[in-house]
Design goal:
serine acetyltransferase, domain 1; six-stranded mixed beta sheet; EC 2.3.1.30; Ser_AcTrfase_N
Length: 312
C-alpha cells in the first residue's frame, strides 16, 4: 500500500514537550538510523514511520496493512484506526504507555521503533482497544470481525468487550486468550499462552479481574470471576481458580498462595513492572510443601495434616 495520509487534515506537529512527542521523535530517529544501516529496509521504514506526521498515523497505517485482507480493505481499516486514535485521548495515550512498558521491561526490545513495527503483542493490544471502542458503540459486528483478524494475524484472541488498562506488556504474546468479561488493570505484564477464561458455558460476569502491576507467567491459566490483587505474581504454568491477595505469589496446579494468611510470602516490588519471575528461598520451601500436599492429598501421607496447616 502507498504511504501517506488519506482524508484527514494533518494534525499539529507531534514534536512537542509531551511524552508522546518525545517518544515519536525517538521512533523516527531509530527508523532513520535503521534505514541508514540496513538499506533493504529503507522503503519499509519510510512507508511505516518516516512518511507520517504523528504516532497515531504511523500506527494506523501499520495496523491497517497488517490486518487488511482481500475483503477487508486497507483504506477502511486505516480510516477506522486513525479516526479512533485521533478522537479519543485515552486511545491516543495508551500506545505511548505500552511502548514505554516494552522498552523498560523487555531487555530484547532494542528501540521504540522496534516495538512499534515488530511486537505483535503491542500491535494486538492497540487493535483490541479500537475493537473495544466499537463494541461500546454497539458496532458489534465490526468489533467481532476485527477480533477475528487480530486472532488470525497475531495469534492473540481478545474478546472486544474485555477491558484493558495501559502500560501493558504482552511479552511474545503467542496464544494469549482473554475472555469477554475480563478486566486488566494498568502496568500488567503477561507472557505467552496465558488464558483468562471462564469455567463453563454459563453467561454473565465469568472472567478474571487482574489488578494493577500484576505479572502472569507463561502458560498460566486463570479461570472464573476471580480477583488477582494489585502487584500479585502468577507463576508460569499455574492454574488459578481462587482469588489471589495483593502482592502475593500463586503457583501450581491448582495454584496455591505462597505465604498464606500471615503474608510472609508477600513482596514489596511491583512484579508487572520488575518482571521478576524468581522465587525467594521461603517461596521455594513453600512450593515444595505444596507439592508434597498434592502427592498426599488423600490424607494417607504421615505429614499431610502438618503440611496442609503450614501452607495456610
Amino acid at each position: 500500500m502507498p504511504a501517506g495520509d488519506f482524508r484527514y487534515a494533518p494534525p499539529p506537529p507531534a514534536e512537542s514537550d509531551s511524552e508522546e512527542g518525545r517518544i515519536w521523535s525517538q521512533i523516527k530517529t531509530g527508523a532513520r538510523r535503521d534505514a541508514d544501516s540496513e538499506p533493504a529496509l529503507a522503503s519499509y521504514l519510510y512507508s511505516t514511520i518516516l512518511s507520517h506526521s504523528s504516532l497515531e498515523r504511523s500506527l494506523s497505517f501499520h495496523l491497517g496493512n497488517k490486518l487488511c485482507s482481500s475483503t477487508v480493505l486497507f483504506s477502511l481499516l486505516y480510516d477506522l484506526f486513525l479516526d479512533s486514535f485521533s478522537s479519543d485521548p485515552a486511545l491516543r495515550s495508551a500506545p505511548v504507555a505500552d511502548l514505554r512498558a516494552a522498552k523498560l521491561r523487555d531487555p530484547a526490545c532494542l528501540s521504540y521503533s522496534h516495538c512499534l513495527l515488530n511486537y505483535k503483542g503491542f500491535l494486538a493490544c492497540q487493535a483490541h482497544r479500537v475493537a473495544h471502542k466499537l463494541w461500546t458503540q454497539s458496532r458489534r459486528p465490526l468489533a467481532l470481525a476485527l477480533q477475528s483478524r487480530i486472532s488470525d494475524v497475531f495469534g492473540v484472541d481478545i474478546h472486544p468487550a474485555a477491558r484493558i488498562g495501559k502500560g501493558i506488556l504482552f511479552d511474545h504474546a503467542t496464544g494469549i486468550v482473554i475472555g469477554e468479561t475480563a478486566v486488566i488493570g494498568n502496568n500488567v505484564s503477561m507472557l505467552h499462552h496465558v488464558t483468562l477464561g471462564g469455567t463453563g458455558k454459563v453467561g454473565g460476569d465469568r472472567h478474571p479481574k487482574i489488578g494493577d502491576g500484576v505479572l502472569i507467567g507463561a502458560g498460566a491459566t486463570i479461570l472464573g470471576n476471580v480477583k488477582i490483587g494489585e502487584g500479585a505474581k502468577i507463576g508460569a504454568g499455574s492454574v488459578v481458580l481462587i482469588d489471589v491477595p495483593p502482592r502475593t505469589t500463586a503457583v501450581g496446579n491448582p495454584a496455591r498462595r505462597v505465604g498464606g494468611r500471615v503474608g510472609s510470602g508477600k513482596h514489596e516490588e511491583v512484579p508487572g513492572e520488575s518482571m521478576d519471575q524468581t522465587q525467594t528461598p521461603m517461596e521455594v520451601v513453600l512450593i515444595k510443601w505444596m507439592t508434597a500436599i498434592t502427592v498426599a492429598h488423600s490424607g494417607d501421607h504421615p505429614w499431610a495434616d502438618y503440611l496442609e496447616l503450614a501452607a495456610k
